[in-house]
Amino acid sequence: MSTAVKMVNITKTFPGITANDNVNFEVKKGEVHGLLGENGAGKTVLMNILYGLYKPDKGQIFVNEKEVKIDNSAVAIKLGIGMVHQHFMLVPSLTVAENIVLGREPKKYELLLDIKKTLKDIEALSARYRLDVDPKASVCDLPVGVQQRVEILKALFRGAEILILDEPTSVLTPQEVEGLFDAIRALTGQGKSVIFISHKLKEVCAICDRITVLKKGKVVGTVEKKETTPDALAEMMVGREVIVALKKEHVEPGKPVLKVQGLNALNDRKLPALRDVDFEVHEYEILGLAGVEGNGQTELVEVLTGVRELRSGNILFDGKPVTHASPHERIGMGISCVPEDRQKNGLIMDFSVLENLMLGRHDRPPFATKWFRLNLSKATGFADRVIQEYSIKAPGTGTLARHLSGGTQQKVIVAREFSRKPRVIIASQPTRGLDVGATEYVREKLVEMRDQGCAVLLISADLDEIFALSDRIAVIYEGRIVAVKEAGQTNELELGLLMTGGKR
Q1: Predicted local distance difference test score (pLDDT) of residue 212
Q2: Are 46 and 93 within one domain?
Q3: Pairing between β-strand 210-215 and β-strand 32-37 as defined by DSSP bridges
Q4: For residue 41, how many C-alpha atoms fall within 13 Å in the half-sphere facing its CB?
Q5: Among 389, 420, 451, which residue terminates a domain?
Q6: Do 432 and 312 reside in the same domain of the chain?
Q7: In the structure, what pLDDT confidence band is assigned to residue 99 with cuts at 50, 70 and 90?
Q8: Residue 279 — pLDDT band, cuts 50, 70, 90?
Q9: Is 64 exposed, middle or buried (0-12, 13-18, 19+ CB in 10 A)?
Q10: Which residues lie closer than 8 Å to 345 by C-beta, 6 or more apart?
Q11: 456: which of 100, 137, 230, 440 lies 20 to 30 Å off by Cα?
Q12: Strand, helix or coil for residue 87
């Protein structure tokens, strides 16, 4: 098999850090090549160099066995390199067809968009690679799995022969993952090469032919799929044995702590997001909430934490109504939240680690005096203790949050929320984008809090995580709770069907 891409001795440094240290990476034509590594291992930097978003400090890049210089993404696209980012780059108000041809529109009379040719070309491309889409549909109306197909078609329309997929399954149902894998096999069957970046080791082993692991900017090794396992890959990434699937001991749940009745709320577009939502979470219990993104999970978290207004319904905490309590009051009552977007909603990026650890309690003893002045010695002592207890890798308490890795940022949030000794924890996508080591840590902490009597509401699009942690599982679809199951009495197929509006 000939070589599609070869990167030789790639080195890239940023102030104070070497992201890539003499990295050698090779992808063959017609293969799916997995790229693994912890957060901060350098895999995204390496792919951004290949796609022309960064320039290497030194090293060589060969495409189709010819040395090339990739100064920007336009050059990469001309060389047949396409990239589908983790966060989609689509214009929601445009149609599928308009998004795919944007910037390369087929013209009629050298002026007008040739709609007929555009639709014909997209339908042919869609059929060729088994990526079924409706070219006339508006992107804003599409589920995330279909939006991802649009992103792949957009890259193929521009002539991509080498496709980089960054965390492509992070928001997909099991059925959508299988559909994506079918499309990937169709691509490689026609000679295209795929670079598959993921933290989901089972999926990497299912779809990749070879796998390269990075650690601290260096290549640990490249292995054949048939010669490795998820456990072996995790150990290569972290340098020790990792518990990929957490084993839980059964704990008898206690009394209901959080109870919601008939919740109705609107989304930002003033459309119904929650429709008569009812559930309860008990002491010593993790209730997993499974669902495809965009089915009301974000609005539910905002309603429960007091940052979104309810149209109707009740929220009870220890049997007392808290429906109209402010977010600050709910924190004081014992409701903690790990939000889905750590940078937007979980941290103030220009605050220090110390300041972020105090948020929500900064105006209360022991951190605030009766004159509302900061007791710096108490705050520093607390921060030092929590940094050690939660293994937060930060140069010091004064380090700004924006200078921490994604995994360390998540640990700061977890440390702040869990150290309050809450009665209820709302954990929304708590391990998204984290490597296996950080994922293991956060999951262990959630189980630890449950075992201490906390009621945990776990909201996750990752069914492996839902099954690994949950005692009971609720499924949300189009803003409604469509089923509640005991974790041991259901499976991924049934949940995947329920998540997409199907029935058992």
Answers
A1: 97
A2: yes
A3: parallel
A4: 28
A5: 420
A6: yes
A7: very high
A8: very high
A9: middle
A10: 339
A11: 230
A12: coil
| pLDDT given at position 110 | 65
Question: 44 with 158, same domain?
Answer: yes
Mean pLDDT score of the chain: 89
Residues present in the chain in total: 504
Q: Provide the CATH number for the domain around residue 184.
A: 3.40.50.300
CA-based nearest residue to 487, from 503, 473, 475: 473
Task: From 205, 238, 271, give the residue that closes a domain.
Answer: 238
What is the mean predicted confidence (pLDDT) over 241-250?
A: 60
Q: Quick one: 126 and 162 in the same domain?
A: yes
- Whole-angstrom distance, CA of residue 79 vs CA of residue 161: 8
Nearest-CA neighbor of 306 among 296, 295, 315, 293? 315
Token pair for 309: 């207004």
Structure tokens at 399: 């380090």
- Please indicate, yes or no, whether residues 209 and 110 belong to a single structural domain of this protein: yes
The alpha-carbon radius of gyration of the chain (Å, integer) is 24
Instruction: Tell me the per-residue pLDDT of 36-56, one tens digit each, with 9 for 90 and over.
Output: 988 778 888 999 999 999 999
Q: Is residue 344 part of a domain?
A: no
Domain span at 250: 244-334+421-504
Please write the tens of the pLDDT for every residue from 415-453.
999 998 899 999 998 887 677 777 888 899 999 999 999
pLDDT range class, residue 12, cuts 50, 70, 90: very high
CB of 182 within 8 A of CB of 130? yes
Query: Are 212 and 95 members of one domain?
Result: yes
